[in-house]
Input
Amino acid sequence: MSAMDGTIRRVLEAHGRLPASTSQLKDDDDLYERGLSSHASVNVMLALEDAFDVEFPDSLLRRGTFRSIATIREALEGLATPAASKVESS
Amino acid sequence: MSTSEGFREELLHAGLLVDGGVLGVYHRSFRYEAIVRGVQAYVSAPASGESFLQLALPPVQARSTLERSGYVSSFPNLLGLVSSFAGTEKEVSAFLEETDAGGDWMARMTPTDVALCSAACHGLYPMLAGSSVPAEGRRYEVHAWCFRHEPSADPARMQSFRMHEFVYVGTPSGAEAHREAWIGRATGLLEGLGLAVDVVPANDPFFGRAGRLLASNQRTKELKYELVAPISSVAPGAISSGNYHEDHFGSAFDLLVDGEVAHSSCFAFGLDRISLALLYRHGLDTADWPADVLRRLTADLDAGARAAT
Output
């Protein structure tokens, strides 16, 4: 598991209020089906921003961004790449 | 009547509304109130026969309701708190002297336990807090003056306005069925008044960046539908809405059904907006309104008056 994945799981564990431990989650598991509520997803979003020192642009403040560990990782990787953020703002 | 500002001027000129001195605050003429009462009785009539607990709620509610419902974090820019003075007589003279010297008396006020009513159904949930509702759910018909801090010259966006709601608390399927039934029923009722109604997916104006995510969730899950029609200009606005809250209020207020967290839904008629939409559609003089529309409003008004005696 990469350092990024570890941090994502730690944030989900602390802020996702999921009924089961995040250690049992697969990358593609649907977090909403696993019990992630709308309000908990906001806390996850804010905690991810703190943990990675990033700010999600408005275009990523959507339900789909926080659907799974994989989609969260994809969003964060996009933010970390200058080329990707350029595409985002165009 | 091309702009909302133009329509506002016409309403004021006709004396239907009177400028209340603050943007979005109006005094209502009795002529306008007769329309509101007619609409209220008309939308209330189909509920008779069903077991709705009917309550008229005051324009204020417990401040804790705002906190517990999540309204403070989701809509801090729209809420209203009642403040008052909690000090001694000696302090009064001190702050009056300060005020005379150009100081700010409001800095001496403290928030009370009272807030302005945020939505008609919000007052219901603390009433039920910690209780278990029967498997068939509970139904409520509630009416309240509501407040939103959004000063605007558009008469469709009042700061103080009335909501008439039909609320369900119970199972998830019951909550969805309640909302669907009322969306259908309300569309027919409003079309019966000659309004051109569209039903569209919508979201609440949640505050800030977190609010964007909440709004996306609400839209993706189709939790909110608005019934829109021209209100003060050709651009349609919401005159009613059907909302499925899932377990939001059930979790916040510890409401149970069959040992599980209860779900809830509501259908809200915006009485002032419907009344304005009627004035916009049919003209400012009700004597000129189509006979069938008048009959529907006044018949129910008469029935409502009879029921009240």
